[in-house]
Amino acid sequence: MEFKIGDLVTRNSHNNDIVFKIQKIEENTCELKGINVRLLVDSPLNDLKKYEGGDIEGEKTFLERIQPKEELDRNDFFYLPGKILHIDSDKDFLKRCLDYYKDINIWAMGINEEEKNMPKHMQEWLNKYKPNIVVITGHDAYYKRKGDTNNIDAYKNSKYFSSAIKEARKYENSHEKLIIIAGGCSSYYEELIRAGANFASSPKRINIHALDPAIVATKMSLSDINKDIDIKDILDKTKYGKDGMGGIITKGTMYVGYPR
Hints:
The chain is an alpha/beta fold. 27% of the residues lie in helices and 21% in strands. It has seven helices and 13 strands.
């Protein structure tokens, strides 16, 4: 079977569980990017099967589940949700997240930048846009052959995420004045939390959904600034729950005003 760049495929060796798009083809191998998960992998062409449609990853049900339900009293009160700065190395996933914010009427600015460049620009971006919430995401991976899970050099991009978080904390040290959500697939969760993130991936070193960081950011944007969040409820909204994302209990970022 012949394959071309842009084809949607699955991998036979992984029970065809994830749908990918072919990014590059070189001789008998190719680079694949997950359609729904933040995953970049290489694969031999002879391991691929063309995606024939269908809801392989339960995507339809998941997208229905994450649509926020209107629970605000708009007759008497008005609301000022927290502003989001979303920094993402993947332009396709960035657009998907920005569309998600737009559908919910949340102010969000998106920046497409490689992980390695995020730390050096972080304070510049924060000074320019002055967000309440910053998302630092893209792609990551844990390589067992390079070390155990407590070795940051065993991760593809966790060291850049960690450095970017630390730069953000130089700008604002308070976890309640600046909410930081960081990481990608299989990121070094404990290190990102130690660096200063409010939320991070991935406690069980698993893949996360393209929208998971945006889902958490949205919940934080729409949570009352005077009340502690329901952290279990927020994590349950993500694709893989507490296995994929974790964090600390803090307050929201939304101001409530009266009268409308």
